[in-house]
Design goal:
With 68 residues, the protein is an all-alpha fold. It is built from three helices and no strands. The chain is 46% helix and 0% strand.
Length: 68
């Protein structure tokens, strides 16, 4: 069996360090023309979500992912 991770939506304390790191890495990967791995395509942890937000440019002015 895999490991279960607690899902923590963005709250008052803002995005996690993993999310912010993922956004930066996603923006860099997009600029370099890198392909997404399966983990980065479907991962639900903060890093993967942040990576996709940075890679696909889905950020609002507050620096968090768009809600819908």
């Amino acid at each position: 069996m895999g490991t279960v991770t607690e899902f923590k939506p963005l709250g008052k304390e803002g995005p996690s360090a993993a999310y912010v790191s993922g956004v930066a890495d996603g923006q860099s990967a997009r600029a370099e023309g890198s392909a997404l791995t399966l983990y980065l395509q479907v991962g639900i942890d903060d890093y993967a979500i942040g990576f996709r937000a940075g890679f696909f440019g889905q950020l609002n002015h507050a620096g968090t992912a768009d809600k819908g």
